[in-house]
Amino acid sequence: MDPFGQLPWFALQNILSNLDLPSLHSLHNASPEVMVFLHRNHNLFTYIIDAIIENTARERGLMLHVQHAVRLIIFVWTRQSSHKSAVPVQEPDTDILGSLQLIREQSPYNPSPIWKTISPSTPSAILCQLLSLMTRLRCLTHAYFHSTISKCLQIHVEHLPKKTKYILTRGIVDPSQRPPGIPYTPVDIGPPTWLEEQRLLAGLLCIVLFYELRKTNNQVSSDDNVEGFWTTVFERGGQVEQIATLLHWLDGQASGHAKVYSWLLSGKGSEDYNRCCQRYTSMTDKQWVQAEIDLCSWRSSRGMQSLWRCYSPFRPYGVVFWDGIRMDALGLPEAQYSHYMWFTWSFMLTEEDWEEIRRRQGDPSFDRRR
Asked: Which residues, including other chains, have CB under 8 Å from residue 266's CB and lie 6 or more apart?
């Protein structure tokens, strides 16, 4: 007997509202009683999903801009369904492209208004499609995390001894000219923090949203590309670079850019990544305050702060997503210590990267801040 069938509706609603979306998806598929409850009580299905993504408890729910992305994807899917249906779903007219600014990372002290809650008229099939997508993205988020952290742990890292002054350390463009360093062994601090996972999830949702908009919105042409599209929305910055970094990984997984979206939705991957990290790496109150300061200044993450427009050589390591606690454990100094940072981060460069640096430093038009 399915025990969920013995619960009163309000108790079952409360239980389901305190899950995350992948867990709700698993329970929906595993329990016939839960499936019937959600599909029969249509308005409660939308209410439960809204309650899950809006959960304000620390390390629960979704960040506000991620909530906007989820709701906008539901709206786009509903519009697509309406165009195909003999009985169109009645939805208010919405400027979708104009709403994309709400998906920009935002300060917790000055957030944008909630775009809208999920419409109670949203078909159950679309809500189930969302649960399936969020389960898939959870898997990809952790597959990406473990893949890139593994690369970070394999870096041969050395730190510059803390002398009073270094001359031309940052200007060295030949790895053989590095001064003697102190070897450092990168440390794995475990699962991602909630904020790191949210950054990864937001980037993947932006990629999904681009391809879904390209299906039905005549303002997004087949000639547009993901990074270029989001650059026009967000301008250059942390979020665009996070999307580009994910695309770099997805291109390799899908064996080509043209196959990225189909692989993202259904490509072969280990289901173990849906269960690999049962808890987040905890953050102290001080680290939460620093994360809020970073969001206020549009710096996103400490890895993003450190790169300052020198992105592509470091994309294989995913550093634009990592918090300060992870960067410290990996032995990667922050930007305020420029000599020490350049010395250590340069160990992540390939020989091709060094050739590119030499070429650019020989070009007077090259911006040396890179």
From this structure: 136
Q: Which residues pair with 182 in a beta bridge?
A: 159
Rounded CA separation 66/291 (Å): 16
| In the chain, beta strands by DSSP E | 157-159, 182-184
Within 8 A by CB and 6+ apart from 356, the residues are 313
**How many Cβ atoms sit within 10 Å of the Cβ of residue 32?**
12
CB atoms within 10 A of CB 353: 16
Q: What are phi and psi of 183, to 5 degrees?
A: -60, 140
Long-range contacts at 174-180 (CB < 8 A, ≥ 24 apart): 174/354, 174/358, 175/346, 175/349, 175/354, 178/343, 178/346, 179/343
CA dist 266 and 8 (Å) reads 36
295-329, pLDDT tens digit by residue? 766 567 878 777 766 778 899 999 999 998 899 99
Bridge partners of 69, per DSSP, are none
Q: Distance (Å, rounded) from C-alpha 63 to C-alpha 42?
A: 25
Tokens at residue 120, please? 């109670």
| Per-state percent for the chain, helix, strand, coil, to nearest 5 | 60, 0, 40
Burial 52-90 (b: 16+ CB within 10 A, else e): bbebeeebebbbbbbbbbbbbbbbbbbbebeeeeeeeee
Nearest in space to 348 (alpha carbons), one of 323, 318, 308: 318
The mean of the pLDDT values for the chain is: 85
| β-pair type (182-184, 157-159) | antiparallel
Residue position matching structure tokens 């009580």:
41
| The predicted structure's pLDDT at residue 143 | 96
What is the token pair recorded at 304? 């993003």
pLDDT digits (tens, 9 = 90+) for 59-103: 899 999 999 999 999 999 998 887 666 555 445 456 788 888 889
In eight-state DSSP terms, residue 270 is -
Distance CA 194, CA 62 (A): 9
Q: Cα–Cα distances in Å, from 139 out to 83, 234, 260, 273?
A: 31, 26, 16, 5
